[in-house]
From TrEMBL:
Gene3D superfamilies (UniProt xref): 3.40.50.2300
Organism: Pseudofrankia asymbiotica
CDD domains per the UniProt record, alphabetical: LuxR_C_like, REC_NarL-like
Keyword Transcription regulation: yes
Sites bearing 4-aspartylphosphate, chain numbering: D35
PANTHER family: TRANSCRIPTIONAL REGULATORY PROTEIN NARL-RELATED (PTHR43214:SF24), TWO-COMPONENT RESPONSE REGULATOR (PTHR43214)
InterPro entries in the cross-refs: CheY-like_superfamily, NreC/VraR/RcsB-like_REC, Sig_transdc_resp-reg_C-effctor, Sig_transdc_resp-reg_receiver, Tscrpt_reg_LuxR_C, WalR-like
Origin organism lineage: Bacteria, Bacillati, Actinomycetota, Actinomycetes, Frankiales
SUPFAM superfamilies membership: C-terminal effector domain of the bipartite response regulators (SSF46894), CheY-like (SSF52172)
Domain Response regulatory: 1-101
HTH luxR-type domain location: 129-194
UniProt name for this protein: DNA-binding response regulator
Length: 215
């Protein structure tokens, strides 16, 4: 059965991780909403299998309850483009799907940074993204450092006294040099490499609110 909502087609549903992987391979969707807690195979393993080695893999959004699901951080490291709390409204869900489909990372205000700070420790997480930051220029390193504390493109532009277009160019170059999919993985890299650590100035206050146009 195919359902539509505001121009979004629901091409498949699955009751467990095994069937989710099979459904993705069969239908090749653009975006997958994946619950972490499922029978047979949990959502984290299912996401890893969906994203591993695929040339045109879909974007994956993990559904979670923040206080319980410690594996969301590992999901971001595995390539998921973000996560949502299960109590999101239908309008928020539709907006999230569109945002991720457009190529952006879903960095929810207040939650993403708290999650990374709570669970990220260099070398501790399985499936971590390891990248050599030596390819980045000093300016790109500073942009990545602030990006990882949750600052939006607009806030980065103010911090560096640059235009938002120039900031977007810096972010795009960072992602390209480090072979990353989106900002979510950039945050993971910054913490895994020790560029940013829990308690870094700017990493403990209220989170920035990345706009739909952030890249």
């Amino acid at each position: 059965m195919i359902l539509t909502a505001d121009g979004i087609e629901v091409v498949a549903e699955a009751a467990d991780g095994v069937r989710a992987v099979e459904a993705v391979r069969r239908t090749r969707p653009d975006v997958v909403l994946m619950d972490i807690r499922m029978p047979e195979m949990d959502g984290l393993e299912a996401a890893r299998r969906i994203l591993a080695g695929a040339d045109a893999s879909p974007r994956v959004i993990m559904l979670t309850t923040f206080d319980l699901d410690r594996y969301v951080y590992a999901a971001l490291a595995a390539g998921a483009s973000g996560f949502l709390l299960k109590d999101v409204t239908p309008e928020q869900l539709v907006a999230a799907v569109r945002l991720v489909r457009a190529g952006d990372a879903l960095l929810a205000p207040t939650i993403t940074r708290r999650l990374v700070e709570r669970f990220a420790a260099p070398g501790r997480q399985a499936g971590a993204i390891h990248r050599d930051l030596a390819t980045l220029t000093p300016r790109e390193l500073e942009v990545l450092r602030l990006l990882a504390t949750g600052q939006s493109n607009a806030e980065l532009a103010v911090a560096f006294q640059l235009s938002e277009a120039t900031v977007k160019t810096h972010v795009a170059r960072i992602l390209a040099k480090l072979r990353l999919r989106d900002r979510a993985q950039a945050v993971v890299v910054a913490y895994e490499t020790g560029l940013v650590t829990p308690g870094t100035p700017g990493a403990a206050g209220s989170a920035a609110r990345p706009a739909a146009g952030d890249f």
